[in-house]
Q: What sequence folds into this?
């Protein structure tokens, strides 16, 4: 009887405490990725989100084990933090040393503000890679040809797997100088394209970790590899001389295929001279121009067991391209969308032009039946001549061909015939295009079904959105995203057609636009390592990264190459993760110290200035000095965060010296005008924060008068376009900023849209003769402006990662409805408003769990101007004061 009583008590307490538990944390990630493979960091970052039903986290407990069943029973043999009082949802692993090739399972439990415990999260995992380069086995191999030899080779390896052993898991660890495509038993492994990402090949090579468990079979297996040149063996010629890169070499790869058996043993198959090679049908491949493919040279079953390989040659042992092989931890490039043509224009039976709904970065897939030896030329363009044929004159301007064997953005496909449908899609190239013109050496029958366009880019998840009652604004938002993504290929580029270069300026201008809408931290963390590889001992950085040497003498002043400071800073603001800023601290410091060493009076003229302006040229020394100032303030802030007192004091003084020097030299304190008072010259000092407090309103008023004079149209280049709208909306002129942002007449973003743009252009003038790529991101800060000025979503530098949100919406005249959403590390923030009547506005806000916000209402709203908001959902009825 007594026992039953005790049992009942235990049972009932269990029910009360179990039911009392709050919802579990979700979105567990390691190194900002879901269940990543190939982690090499000794202290990876672990992150999660608490349930949106809660107000705040007050404590957490992380448990890590190599055994998921033990972990489910709360046995954490690798790391158990115990209950830690903290509101942070980002913790660096500090358990036992991580072993290579090991899967670690982890879960997290949190406590809310009432100290109520959550249910544990689902168990998730990360798996280590090689960790140390000494764990690599095997040899780098290539086909042994000269760098100028055009055809590429098949590589294959036959392996017989023990039928009595059961495979538990299998991984391919593969790195290449150039690009690789790995297949097993005839099937491509995974869906990555153009892998691995481009790096400074003589300094750092990236390896990918691929799960190949399901592709292996008992007995005979065949591994196949095809290599592409990528940026490693640039056979095309253009003004940047990548064909003369000191790193240039014949593409090569190193693979370790590790099989883990159920019985606990493992085996590694490696690349070495036992692999066999044979020329492939890929006659030529260039990351820059195109791919040429001769289907007559296909070998059926080249990557399948059972092929007679007596004619194949042994692979050739090659030198490692660099001493460093690093795990690639980022969202890979993938096909993200397949687009069917919207139109086919048959010119005659040897010429067809296909149109697509939007301008993209990518490739085509063509399916065609024709006579043997028929040669198809597949041209990719962003626009058409009046006669409807492909026009590449806006994008082939920097191309310097030495003969006619490598036409720009033109694939060549030679058919093998035989009455079958043949398919071709390039593996080692991409292009920027909206139109595809196919010409053939013999009559051919093509239909709309013959071609699909495959959109490619780093496949970063979308985490933000904008919706409004103004279709032009929404279309600008979409076009900006299209250009952002078209320029994300493991590093941010300027354009996907003419250059594909990692222009530093374009990237820092677009960083906020990118981070509001996409979870792109992993791409920038990779790219910042490229900066480390490129920095000279004196701190100088190039204007394009990666580079083989081009860009150290041109374009690398602070207005472009401040990317080294601005990008880690913005990543910190958006993610609340200081890892990148910390790791780049020394690089930023060296860059800043270099500028200081050549700018004794506090200003600098080093830079390109306000690039591609509408009509007015602005003072270059002013804009360059503002970027120099920004770098120094970032450094001072970082120094404070990282406890470097001396640096903090030094760079705080230097920042003051620079702002004083800028104001002394360029500001007329009587009139409140900088230099000659162009839009950029007034907006940029306001935006970058050097205008003395007491003169701010005067400078802002002058800026307003200036844009009024220009009939509320933009008159800036790319540096001014970054500053103008913010400078207006943050200084009381949000209506004017909005009017400029949604103009539909020249010059404006809307002018591009009404003329059919689906991406942003390089030039305000759509008929410009130069600098008129139709897919540049450098005028793309407008999306960040929408999130900030209309949605009011600002990160708070003192509580980064939107731990605290500075909400400053503007209910601008002429817009009835607006909604901005951004999924921060803590969850989705929503800021949306609807104008009900002339004066009434309904403002809907969602503040994620574990965060807070300060709402700052604009002057034209009745009542209190600031409000503190804790996590939760709010619907506020606001009234506008009559204007
Ligand atoms: C690129 C730009 C880049 C600029 C630097 C151009 O060729 O396409 O986007 O920033 O050069 O001046």
A:
């Amino acid at each position: 009887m007594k026992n039953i009583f005790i049992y009942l008590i235990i049972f009932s307490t269990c029910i009360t405490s179990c039911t009392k538990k709050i919802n579990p944390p979700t979105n567990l990630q390691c190194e900002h990725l879901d269940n990543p493979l190939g982690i090499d960091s000794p202290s990876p970052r672990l992150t999660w989100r608490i349930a949106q039903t809660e107000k705040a986290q007050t404590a957490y407990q992380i448990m890590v084990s190599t055994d998921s069943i033990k972990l489910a029973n709360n046995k954490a043999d690798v790391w158990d933090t115990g209950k830690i009082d903290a509101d942070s949802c980002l913790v660096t692993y500090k358990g036992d040393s991580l072993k290579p090739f090991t899967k670690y399972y982890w879960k997290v439990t949190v406590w809310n503000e009432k100290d109520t415990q959550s249910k544990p999260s689902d168990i998730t995992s990360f798996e280590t890679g090689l960790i140390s380069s000494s764990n690599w086995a095997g040899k780098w191999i290539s086909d042994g040809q000269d760098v100028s030899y055009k055809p590429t080779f098949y590589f294959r390896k036959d392996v017989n797997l023990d039928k009595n052993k059961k495979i538990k898991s299998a991984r391919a660890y593969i790195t290449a100088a150039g690009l690789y495509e790995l297949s097993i038993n005839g099937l491509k492994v995974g869906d990555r394209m153009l892998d691995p990402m481009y790096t400074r090949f003589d300094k750092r090579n990236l390896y990918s970790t691929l799960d190949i468990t399901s592709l292996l079979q008992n007995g005979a297996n065949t591994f196949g590899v095809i290599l592409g040149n990528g940026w490693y063996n640039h056979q095309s010629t253009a003004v940047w001389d990548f064909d003369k890169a000191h790193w240039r070499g014949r593409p090569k790869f190193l693979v370790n295929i590790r099989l883990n058996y159920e019985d606990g043993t493992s085996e590694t198959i490696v690349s070495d001279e036992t692999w066999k090679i044979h020329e492939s049908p890929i006659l030529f491949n260039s990351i820059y121009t195109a791919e040429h493919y001769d289907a007559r040279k296909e070998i059926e079953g080249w990557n399948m067991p059972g092929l007679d390989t007596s004619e194949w040659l042994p692979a050739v042992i090659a030198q490692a391209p660099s001493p460093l092989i690093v795990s690639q931890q980022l969202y890979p490039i993938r096909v993200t969308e397949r687009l069917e043509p919207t139109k086919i224009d048959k010119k005659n039976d040897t010429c067809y032009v296909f149109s697509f709904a939007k301008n993209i970065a990518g490739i085509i897939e063509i399916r065609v039946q024709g006579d043997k030896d028929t040669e198809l030329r597949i041209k990719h363009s962003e626009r058409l001549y009046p006669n409807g044929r492909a026009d590449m004159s806006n994008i082939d301007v920097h191309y310097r061909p030495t003969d006619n064997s490598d036409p720009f953005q033109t694939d060549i496909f030679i058919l093998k015939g035989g009455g079958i449908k043949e398919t071709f899609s390039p593996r080692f190239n991409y292009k920027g295009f909206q139109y595809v013109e196919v010409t053939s050496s013999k009559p051919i029958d093509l239909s709309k079904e013959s071609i699909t366009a495959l959109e490619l880019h780093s496949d970063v998840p979308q985490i933000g959105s904008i919706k409004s009652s103004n279709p032009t604004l929404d279309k600008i938002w979409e076009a900006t995203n299209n250009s952002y993504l078209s320029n994300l290929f493991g590093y941010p580029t300027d354009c996907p057609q003419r250059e594909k270069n990692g222009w530093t300026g374009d990237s820092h201008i677009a960083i906020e636009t990118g981070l509001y809408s996409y979870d792109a931290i992993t791409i920038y963390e990779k790219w910042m390592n490229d900066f480390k590889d490129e920095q000279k001992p004196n701190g100088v950085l190039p204007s394009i990264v990666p580079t083989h040497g081009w860009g150290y003498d041109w374009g690398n002043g602070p207005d472009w190459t401040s990317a080294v400071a601005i990008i880690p800073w913005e990543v910190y603001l958006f993610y609340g993760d200081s890892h990148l800023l910390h790791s780049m601290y020394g690089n930023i410091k060296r860059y800043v110290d270099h500028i200081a060493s050549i700018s004794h009076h506090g200003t600098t003229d080093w830079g390109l200035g306000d690039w591609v302006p509408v009509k007015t040229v602005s003072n270059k020394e002013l804009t360059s000095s503002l970027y120099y100032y920004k770098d120094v303030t970032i450094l001072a802030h970082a120094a404070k965060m990282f406890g470097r007192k001396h640096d903090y004091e030094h760079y705080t003084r230097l920042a003051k010296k620079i702002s004083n020097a800028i104001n002394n030299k360029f500001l007329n304190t009587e009139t409140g005008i900088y230099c000659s008072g162009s839009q950029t010259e007034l907006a940029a000092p306001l935006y970058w924060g050097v205008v003395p407090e007491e003169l701010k309103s005067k400078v802002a008023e002058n800026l307003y008068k200036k844009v009024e004079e220009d009939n509320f149209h933009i008159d800036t280049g790319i540096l001014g376009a970054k500053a103008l709208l913010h400078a207006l909306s943050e200084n009381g002129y949000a209506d004017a900023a909005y009017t400029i942002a949604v103009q539909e007449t020249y010059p404006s973003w809307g002018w591009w849209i009404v003329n059919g743009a689906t991406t942003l252009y390089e030039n305000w003038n759509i008929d410009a003769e130069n600098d008129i790529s139709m897919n540049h991101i450098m005028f793309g800060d407008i999306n960040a402006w929408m999130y900030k000025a209309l949605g009011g979503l600002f990160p708070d530098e003192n509580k980064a990662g939107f731990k605290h949100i500075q909400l400053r919406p503007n209910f601008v005249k002429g817009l009835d409805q607006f909604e901005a959403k951004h999924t921060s590390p803590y969850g989705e923030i929503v800021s949306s408003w609807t104008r009900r009547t002339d004066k009434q506005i309904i403002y809907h806000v969602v503040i994620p769990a574990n965060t807070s916000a300060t709402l700052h209402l604009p002057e034209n709203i009745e009542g209190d101007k600031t409000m503190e908001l804790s996590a939760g959902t709010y619907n506020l009825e606001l009234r506008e004061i009559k204007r």
In short: The pocket of beta-D-glucopyranose is lined by residues 494-495, 499, 503, 505-506, 555, 608, 611, 776, 778 (CB under 6 Å). Residues 1-18 have pLDDT under 50 and may be disordered. The longest helix spans residues 620-641. The chain has five domains: 24-128, 136-330, 334-389+408-457, 464-790, 807-879.
